[in-house]
Amino acid sequence: MTDGVMSSGDLGNTPYVIVGTYLMLLLALGILGYRKRQGESEEDYFLAGRNQGWVVSSLTIMATFFSSFALLGAPGMVYRDGIVFALFSLNVPVAGVAIYVFGSRIRRIGRERGCLTPADMIVDHYGSPVGLRLLVALVGLLYAVPYVVIQIQAGGILSQQLFPGQDAFDTGACLLALITMVYVAVGGMRSVAWTDVLQGGLLVAGMLLAGTAVVAVLGGPGPFFAAVAKLPAKSLSAPGTTGRWTPELLFTASLFASLGSMIQPAQWMRFYAARSNDVLRRSALIFAAVLTLCFFFGVMLVGLGGQVLYPLVDAAGAYRTTDAGAILPNLAVGQTPGEFDQILVVVLKNHLPDLLGPAGVVLATLILVAIMAAAMSTADSNLHALSALITHDVYDQFVRPQASQRERTWVGRALIAAVTVLALVLVLVGRRSASNPLGMIVILGLLAISFSTQLLPMTVDMLYLRRGTRRGAIAGLITGLLMIFALSPFWSMVAGETFGGLLGSMKKMIDIGAWGLLFNTIVFAAVSWRDAHNPDAVAGTRSQVES
Amino acid sequence: MKALLIGLFLLAIVMGAGPGIHLVNPDAADPAATFTTFGLPTIYVWGLLWYVVQLGVILVAYFRFWTTKDD
């Protein structure tokens, strides 16, 4: 990491005051959420009594969607690969449409049948109380754990930049994890949603301010784009500096990232929690209109400005690379390929105080707090959803079905603590390994999303088509998950270079989530079709909704 | 009208962040290639254009088709 390079602490004491105030506010909202609880029921703890209005719903959906992926990862990826990754912003309107198209039906059916988790609805539809429930819970786990890990990692990165000292990364990661854990465990969905309102507002403002600040640092829009126009040709064209973002890969990643993010468990439960259809309708519009602008005119400009301020090429136009050929960031930004993600923090910290004096210090700190807000708001939602999945889909069903409502909420709280500690350990251990396996935020985030994307075929079938069967859903989901596993970095850890050439070629063609989805859909459709033409096999596997 | 909106939205997805990029993507290896349009990176302008299309479709759907009723 960049210890010693950027940890001079030149923002003075301002970060201590602002970050301290912000964290106290979060704890206060957590306690308020606990005091406003309506009894010790799972429905109240996990879904806030299904009574969220449009302001809270839209901001909590936004805050859950936007994480350190948006505020650190996206500018980091533009800093590395150039303007082509800015087009990833176009996944946001697709996600907005999904809020209404999927969310309104999920909300209605969930309310009618008293569903608490995604598995409740899927199991109710396909009628597989054990296999499918556990599989859907597993998908939630595979999505949520990496996502929580990313957010805690972001807390460490921020702390490293804001506060001096060798242990700043560990302290920041621990503090972010601890405070998030406390307010989620105490107040449940109500606290998560209320803190998300504060955090959602902060992150929208932070994204736009960050873009504005970088443009201002370079002298305004005219000089900014004049300087951008002089960047290396690879930075201004597809597939970008590293050659990763071919239009086909970008297309599948942005399309399925948006859909996968919207049917991941934490968002699915927000649809259940919405008070009415109109709440989701408004949330969808606000989401699509506002957040895309935040991307295009906010954080994406940071990555471009970063390339101007901290060039990736030397005077001769040569890129700095590792022995293995991986492109490296400018030395002032980081020393390893994973440190492109620090560009926003580095730009703000190094340039805003010079540009605006004390006001620049406050502004830089506020934007950095916005990054923390983005990380915490996603971590809290995923911790909360994960707790619901394990408590409701595993503990309630298979461990202690006779547990009281009070016991269930306390098990949920204990799980939040356990998962937080697990994620924190992963971050701290990963950072100490020679080659940090957690890598860049965007890469790990897209891997997590690729898992939740595998719920798409059965979600579409369940909500609209109603032709799939239980066996088809199970077979498709298992196939999709295995495909993701084979294309993920985990494969080489287990199987070495087996099929390495084929898998490597596949990864370059389209996003790994899209590969999983393709095989998932084919198997789902084929098995369901076979069941439909084999009356003996189909008995009991048809949709419960149809009947 | 509904089909038109759906078609337009899908087109915007394919063109904006998909294979449509090939239509405007400058060749990085070509010394004569131009990388900007109206002073902005061409790919950035391309993305903004398709965002406007997507948002237009969403606005029409919001006011004409997305129901406020709970059923």
How would you describe this protein?
The complex is a heterodimer of chains A (547) and B (71). Chain A has helices at residues 14-35, 42-47, 54-65, 68-81, 91-101, 103-113, 118-126, 131-162, 168-217, 221-229, 247-262, 265-273, 277-309, 343-356, 358-399, 405-432, 441-453, 456-465, 470-487, 489-495, 500-509, 512-532, 535-538. Chain A has 547 residues and is an all-alpha fold. In chain B, strand 1 and strand 2 (40-41) form a beta hairpin. The longest helix of chain B is centred in the C-terminal third of the chain and has 23 residues, at 42-64. In chain B, strands 1-2 form a two-stranded antiparallel sheet. Chain B is elongated. Chain B is 54% helix and 6% strand. Chain B starts with a helix and ends in a 7-residue tail after the last helix. The A-B interface holds A 83-84, 86-91, 93-94, 96-97, 100, 108, 222, 225-226, 228-229, 233-234, 236-238, 247-248, 250-251, 254-255, 276-278, 281, 284-285, 288-289, 292, 296, 304 and B 9, 12-14, 16-22, 25-29, 33, 35-36, 39-44, 46-48, 50-51, 54-55, 58-59, 61-62, 66-71.
> Strand order, biggest sheet of chain B?
1-2
* Unreliable segments of 5+ consecutive residues of chain A: 1-9, 539-547
The backbone outline of chain B, from C-alpha atoms, is elongated
- Quick check: average pLDDT of chain B? 93
What average pLDDT do the residues of chain A reach? 87
CATH topology of the largest domain in chain A: Sodium/glucose cotransporter
Task: Briefly note the structural class of the backbone of chain A.
Answer: mainly alpha
Fraction of residues in β-strands of chain B: 5-15%
> What do we call the CATH homologous superfamily of the largest domain in chain A?
Sodium/glucose cotransporter
Write down the CATH class of the largest domain in chain A.
Answer: Mainly Alpha
- Biggest sheet layout of chain A: none
Characterize the biggest β-sheet of chain B: 2 strands, antiparallel
Distance between the termini of chain A: 58 Å
DSSP summary, beta strand count of chain A: 0
What order do the helices and strands of chain A follow?
HHHHHHHHHHHHHHHHHHHHHHH
